[in-house]
Write a structure and sequence with these properties.
Elements: H1 35-48, H2 52-67, E1 71-74, E2 80-81, E3 86-91, H3 94-104, H4 106-149, H5 158-166, E4 178-179, H6 184-191, E5 197-202, H7 205-210, H8 217-225, E6 229-232, E7 238-241, E8 245-253, H9 254-263, H10 268-274, E9 277-280, H11 299-320, E10 327-329, H12 333-349, H13 360-363, H14 366-380, H15 389-410, H16 418-433, E11 441-443, H17 444-450, H18 459-471, E12 475-479, E13 485-489
Parallel strand pairs: 1-10, 3-8, 3-9, 4-5, 5-8
Antiparallel strand pairs: 1-2, 6-7, 11-13, 12-13
Helix pairs in contact: 1-2, 1-11, 2-11, 2-14, 4-11, 8-10, 12-14, 12-15, 14-15, 16-18
Length: about 500
């Protein structure tokens, strides 16, 4: 376990796919993050005192900006899903934004600087080729002029002219990943070419939401969906972006957020656009400052940066190979079963009277977003096989947390059955007393005798809580030789 986990209360972890009703989580489920993400987030939180949720979102968005260029996801019923994800989180101050960007985007900035150098070199080569090509064109023109003056036919030069035109050098296209802000024209330029990846880290988010880009909601929604995008500009200029991947990381003050939400109220396209974003509004930490003299080594952040660079090197190698194209990553059978279960639950939740009906635009995207987040976790963890149930479970846990955040802002409070609270309290107590100390099992009679709060020592309430934990596949109940019941921790939930 990370040494930084002592900096925050342990989060409540919950498999949401099998629960009849789900709790409204407030603490970000940081333990669901893959190790390399979790360590970096907790290291930054420990020293910078910025909410874990805000840091986690930015770290995931950073990894996602590379992942979206590596592969596509094979979802349910053979559906191909773009792995591009977008996030929106509130921030308390400009200092917070600067700190987060500096902490987690240095690897992307280094990647873009390298791309800028490659683009500069490519432009030099392009200009040299263009000069030679134009010289060939002038030579052809001279031939045509000479024949015309002599009154001779020039039709025999047609094939040569066509051959020349087919070899006109194409200018290189810039391939920056990160844009600090972007408008309609810059968006056109960024998407030029096939299979481009674009990540927008919006510092001046209020301006971005008012820009011409966010007024072209059909175009923007197509880009976020990974569909073909057609953009028209001045002088009949048209850009067609095929197989592009676009993600946004928007950090926005609460006042600008509130204004934007009021502007899109009643606008179905605006809500559909907003539903592409995983939303968060972590509690303010304006008055919280680091009070330690400890000099940070930023070892976890450095490891995270190196992993991002490695992922990008793999992406570039794949795109330069003869088989040029993105990988198609799949779930294993156990993960597919969990995904089907989660999709069925979400279908029930968005029905009239369901707990997510008020934000059905967000909830209906949840299964696909779980796939996208699982793909990010899969690649950042350097897994080689198909995506596993554990990876998908971690993603679902975090997706649910984001849904509860959106629900809190845009819907009504979620009713939480007592058994959900009881199950979480029992699990938290067992984790604190046993599982976190490398115990893999505990006798049920010890739990009944000692669990707190004391009300959980009631047989009916304890049995119901344990049954839910079994249903969620977090524990197993086994009978011993003397019919003693033992509670065992399921593998992967320590």
């Amino acid at each position: 376990m990370s040494k930084y986990l002592t900096a925050v209360p342990p989060p409540r972890s919950l498999i949401v796919a099998t629960a009849a009703e789900l709790p409204k989580q407030t603490e970000y489920p940081v333990e669901s993050l893959p190790l390399i993400l979790r360590e970096a987030v907790l290291e930054s939180h420990h020293h910078d005192r910025i909410p874990i949720a805000r840091l986690a979102i930015f770290a995931i968005a950073t990894a996602g900006s590379i992942t979206q260029g590596i592969g596509d996801i094979l979802g349910l019923n053979g559906t191909k899903i773009s792995p591009a994800m977008s996030f929106m989180t509130t921030v308390d101050s400009v200092d917070d934004k600067i700190t987060i960007v500096n902490r987690f985007s240095s690897s992307l900035k280094a990647i873009d600087e390298e791309s800028d150098l490659e683009y500069t070199k490519a432009k030099v080569k392009y200009k040299a080729k263009l000069r030679i090509w134009k010289a060939g064109g002038r030579a052809l023109n001279e031939k045509i002029t000479k024949l015309k003056l002599q009154g001779k036919c020039t039709e025999h030069l047609q094939p040569e002219i066509e051959e020349h035109e087919q070899h006109e050098p194409r200018p290189p296209l810039p391939s920056r990943i990160i844009f600090d802000g972007i408008g309609g024209r810059a968006f056109m330029d960024a998407l030029q070419g096939d299979a481009k990846i674009v990540g927008v880290i919006a510092d001046e988010s209020a301006k971005l939401l008012k820009s011409s880009l966010f007024r072209q909601l059909v175009v923007l929604n197509n880009a976020l969906d990974g569909s073909t995008v057609r953009l028209s500009g001045a002088g009949n200029r048209e850009v067609v972006a095929r197989d592009a991947r676009v993600s946004f990381m928007i950090m926005i003050p609460r006042s600008a957020r509130d204004k934007y939400l009021s502007e899109i109220e009643g606008d179905s396209l605006g809500k559909a656009n907003l539903a592409h974003f995983l939303y968060a509004d972590p509690p303010s930490t304006k008055a919280v400052h680091a009070l330690t003299d400890e000099v940070p080594t930023w070892q976890a952040i450095k490891s995270f940066d190196e992993r991002i660079k490695t992922m990008n090197a793999n992406r570039k190698r794949m795109m330069s190979e003869e088989t040029r194209g993105r990988q198609l990553i799949e779930f294993d059978d156990d993960a597919l079963d969990l995904l089907r279960q989660f999709a069925r639950e979400m279908e029930n939740f968005i029905k009239p009277g369901g707990i997510m009906h008020d934000i059905e635009e967000f909830a209906s995207n949840a299964p696909d977003q779980a796939c996208q987040l699982a793909a990010i976790f899969h690649y950042v963890s350097e897994q080689q096989s198909k995506m596993t149930r554990d990876t998908l479970f971690r993603a679902i846990t975090i997706i649910w947390w984001h849904l509860t955040q959106a629900r809190r802002e845009l819907g009504t409070p979620i009713p939480v059955p007592q058994v959900i609270h009881d199950a979480e309290d029992v699990y938290a107590w067992m984790n604190r007393k046993y599982f976190s100390k490398n115990w893999r099992s505990v006798e049920k009679k010890q739990v009944r005798k000692n669990v707190t709060p004391i009300c959980l020592r009631n047989d009916a309430r304890l049995d119901a809580a344990l049954a839910l934990l079994v249903e969620q596949k977090r524990i197993m109940l086994t009978q011993g030789a003397r019919r003693q019941c033992t509670i065992e921790l399921r593998k992967g939930f320590n």
